[in-house]
Design brief:
With 114 residues, the chain is mostly helical. Helices cover 53% and strands 11% of the residues. The protein has a 3-stranded antiparallel beta sheet with strand order 1-3-2.
Length: 114
Amino acid sequence: MLWITEQEVFCALETMGMSEEKQLVKSWYDGFVFGSRKDIYNPWSITNYLDKKQLRPYWADTSSNGLINRLIRRSSPEIKELMEELLQGREIVVNLTSRLCLNSWNRMRMQSGA
């Protein structure tokens, strides 16, 4: 699962008897946009919140700087320029393909130690 919709999050909150937390959860965990889809949530954050009932940046435990480092070092000059824009606090817009080669992704993760 790559993401969870706001409707699914709110339904889960209702099921767990936590309906009153909807706006608080939205302010903490809503922030992803994929194409025309808005109000997308990170499932890792939501499942951890539902389990622990504590607001925390759970997504911080899901990334590896080694993977990012390796991707940047091996990327094209254009990608490096885009990353520089992000690091300077600017916004970038990119089109993502709907096809992801998981074998390549997993191979890169293993090589980076992620």
